[in-house]
From TrEMBL:
Official protein name in the record: lytic cellulose monooxygenase (C4-dehydrogenating)
Range of residues in the leader sequence: 1-17
Residue ranges annotated for the Auxiliary Activity family 9 catalytic domain, each copy included: 18-219
Keyword Disulfide bond attached: yes
Molecular function in Gene Ontology: hydrolase activity; metal ion binding; monooxygenase activity
Localization per record: Secreted
Organism this protein belongs to: Sistotremastrum niveocremeum HHB9708
GO terms, biological process: cellulose catabolic process
GO cellular component: extracellular region
Recorded catalytic activity of this chain's protein: [(1->4)-beta-D-glucosyl]n+m + reduced acceptor + O2 = 4-dehydro-beta-D-glucosyl-[(1->4)-beta-D-glucosyl]n-1 + [(1->4)-beta-D-glucosyl]m + acceptor + H2O
Protein EC: 1.14.99.56
Keyword set, alphabetical order: Carbohydrate metabolism, Cellulose degradation, Copper, Disulfide bond, Hydrolase, Metal-binding, Monooxygenase, Oxidoreductase, Polysaccharide degradation, Secreted, Signal
Pfam families the UniProt entry points to: AA9
Cofactor or coenzyme needed: Cu(2+)
Amino acid sequence: MKTSFISLVALVAQASAHYTFPSLIIKGGVTTAWEYVRETNNFNTQAPVTDVTSADFRCYDSATSGTAQTVTVNAGDTIGVQSDGTIYHPGVVNVYLAKAPSSVSGWAGDGAVWFKVYQISAVTNGGTSISWPAQNLAGVSFPLPKSLPTGQYLVRLEAIALHVASTYGGAQFYLSCGQINVQNGGSGKPGPLVAIPGVYTGYEPGILININYPIPKNYTQPGPAVWTG
Ligand SMILES: *[C@@H]1O[C@H](CO)[C@@H](O)[C@H](O)[C@H]1NC(C)=O
Ligand SMILES: [Cu+2]
């Protein structure tokens, strides 16, 4: 029963070319789907979030139990987030962290608590070409800064698909939140801190954009600067 359901999900994923991000990459290995990542509403439809002001823009888990286990890592480790397929659409990626006051389990992530630790932007060439290094990746790996304070964090990856982003609300956000317990951390002060939702209006030049014509001369990555520790 379970197997046939999973193969049906795989077929639907191929047909619609959407994707979810159900796994973390820990010590180079891909973890079981929804083990350390909060199950998202679209776990069987792969449909994106398009309203950047909605509550689901944070972790997309309003219709699921939103529970997951928490995996222990060290500050300075390279970890990642893995999709159930590939990042099929042209677009960019941002990875945000938020530190829970204590246990991350069941923590909502309210308030201006999120900071960006990684991004994959576009490559422009003065209007002659634009390319998308995140496109077709299956997973996104990134370093946790060595000075990241010890504690429990939500890890939120968003892959912003821009193929139909030329009208408001057209950009598609594929996102999920994992749970990590960071040990051996430092005394860095992560920032700038933003709220999610709240970080975007949807009118940013990197979100409301026609990527096809005219070819953009430049690309402005949405969100705050990356905190590198
Ligand atoms: C390109 O740069 C200009 C000038 O700074 C800016 O107004 C525009 O929004 C940028 N375009 C994109 C797609 O980021
Ligand atoms: Cu899609």
